[in-house]
Write a structure and sequence with these properties.
2 domains; alpha+beta; about 40% helix; rod-shaped
Length: about 140
């Protein structure tokens, strides 16, 4: 009787171990950019936008076109003024830089060309009240 029970137990053990065969693990990506299901793209994009702390990055498109024009014009004038200061400091042959008091947007700019030393440019931000002074020496 013991031999029979042992034999039954042994056969059942063999049958059950064969049934527990494992297969290979296969990685399936979720993101469609890396080979995942293309239907996951919209879901992942919505999750990313919900977690975005900075909001819409295209703030330029939400602003008033007149504000954009004013800022662009101010930048262009300041760039031209900076070019003229550099040209004067390096002995350019263009028009001589005229000192003066200029107001562009939120900035007040005072230009004081001194004889032989340097060109002093004082920039005052009217919003914050901060002042920056730049001395550009002559190089000719």
């Amino acid at each position: 009787m013991k031999k029979l029970m042992f034999f039954v137990f042994f056969l059942s053990f063999l049958f059950y171990t064969n049934a527990a065969v494992a297969t290979e693990l296969v990685y399936q990506p979720i993101n469609p950019s890396f080979g995942g299901n293309p239907l996951n793209g919209n879901f992942l994009l919505n999750k990313a936008q919900a977690q975005n702390k900075f909001g819409n990055s295209s703030s330029f498109s939400r602003r008033d076109p007149l504000e954009n024009f004013e800022e662009t014009l101010t930048r262009r004038i300041l760039s031209m003024l900076a070019s003229q200061i550099v040209e004067e400091a390096f002995g350019g042959y263009g028009e001589e830089l005229q000192g003066g008091h200029y107001e562009f947007g939120d900035y007040l700019i005072d230009i004081i060309p001194t004889e032989g030393e340097d060109i002093r440019v004082t920039i005052t931000d009217m919003v914050t009240g901060s002042t920056t002074t730049v001395a550009v020496p002559y190089y000719y």
